[in-house]
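Protocol step 4 of 6: structure prediction from sequence.
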Amino acid sequence: MSQRILITYASRAGSTAEVAAAIGDALGARGFTVDTKPVAENQPVDGYQAVLIGSAVRMGQWLPEAVDYIKNHQQALNRVPVALFTVHMNNVGDDEESEKNRNTYMDAVRPLINPVGEAFFAGKMDFSRLSFLDRLTAKLVKAPEQDLRDWGRIRAWAEEIEPMLGPIK
């Protein structure tokens, strides 16, 4: 039986869910058994040898449901390797200021667990998939509708963190 990995995520407009699925596909192709589920399903950590948790960003922070998942499962998460990923549309540059701002996205969760890896991925702005309030906010700040996801980079990160998740059994 192969090592079981849980990938759980919080998504508002579907971009983070698609990134989570791509990470799951990449790890599955490398021999892991992967379950990919939204944090809203509150999937228990028991039975998994590693967990990846991802969240979209709103107002410069992880979504509350992702933070709550970590708080609710903190003890179990601290017994297995955990990696975190963030999908966002701001601070996507390689400059020092963007990197500094990105690092604040996980401020609410880093003290709760000791992640073995972290990644920040540019996301997708699709107005048709946003709530009315999110669409209004995006238009007020003149956010362009675009897809900045780098699927090669996403798959490469899955391969990069594989050794940190433990051996395939």
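Step 5 (inspection) to follow. The chain has one domain: 4-165.
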